[in-house]
Amino acid sequence: MLGDISKAEKIYIACGHTDIRKSIDGLAAIVQRNFQLNPFQNSLFLFCGRRRDRIKALYWEGDGFVLLYKRLENGSFQWPMNAEAVRSISYQEFRWLLEGLSIDQPKAVRKIKIDICI
């Protein structure tokens, strides 16, 4: 199905700004060269422009890339501008981002990973 990003196993966000004029090939090159990740893996890659009112999402569907584009009419995305080049985020953080919230919610209850050795 065209643009069914719910099947993505991981979501990666490119921190800072990206030249949003880039096409599929340009964004795939950023994923490979700058982040050393495979753009053909089952992952969603998110990019944001300088004004933070537009994002692009790149997703490989198995037979071709899907490029999604969202422009806010009012407001801006709370995009992380720290020094990290790429960051993996959860579906919850992705929803927060699209709702105009920061992905670093200070009061959010985080899941704990427990390793049990028997």
Automatic annotation (TrEMBL):
Tell me where on the tree of life, at the top rank, the source sits: Bacteria
The UniProt entry, under PANTHER family, shows: BLR8292 PROTEIN (PTHR36455:SF1), PTHR36455
InterPro entries cross-referenced by the UniProt entry = Transposase_IS66_Orf2
Name of protein: IS66 Orf2 like protein
Any one Pfam family here would be: TnpB_IS66
